[in-house]
Design a protein that fits this description.
- InterPro entries: DNA_Rcmb_RecR, Rcmb_RecR, Rcmb_RecR_Znf, TOPRIM_dom, TOPRIM_RecR.
- This is Recombination protein RecR.
- May play a role in DNA repair. It seems to be involved in an RecBC-independent recombinational process of DNA repair. It may act with RecF and RecO.
- By secondary structure, the chain is an alpha/beta fold.
- The protein is about 45% helix and about 10% strand.
- The chain contains seven helices and seven strands.
- The termini are far apart.
Length: about 200
Amino acid sequence: MQNLPGPLKEVVEQLSSLPGIGPKSALRIALTLLKMPRERAGGVGQAIIDLRERLCLCEDCACLAESSPCAICGDATRDTGQLCLVPEWDALLAMEEMGVYRGKYLVLGGLLSPLDGVDPGQLEIDRLRRRLATGDFEEMILALGATLDAEATASYVKNLVESEFPDVSVTRLAQGIPIGAEVKFMDKETLKQSLVHRQKM
């Protein structure tokens, strides 16, 4: 990659810094963009800029949205007694695709990971406290996955809720999700069974 012209090398380096894209894939993408008509390539670039400028975090659930509150938080038909805690926005999408859960969400913004330096202050713990302090929720469902980081996060959140909001029951997705897996990678049926057969912690 060292012999690439400067502008092409810059695009390849930028693309290959993204998760799941290696240098060869980045080069293929860059060459595809280079072959596109100028207007279409400009459209791709503008869409990336718009992604940053037109999306915001919902003030209630911290999910990505075009406005705040988001469509889910603003939906009066959803069950206001249930709050589903997910690590990232893509896990929320996986839950919604299932079409079974009709409660509210909160996107935690990651998982506790001492080895990676992720502590409670870097997650949406304060937002979680504010949501639970409204007194609207009777149940909080932990949909965090079954990794070691997810287990540590679940334990932390469970202890927090039990000590500060004892009237809120804490449940978790049933252990149909294999150890080491993440919610966003589960097939719909496994995710559905895990939600339907969730267990009290």
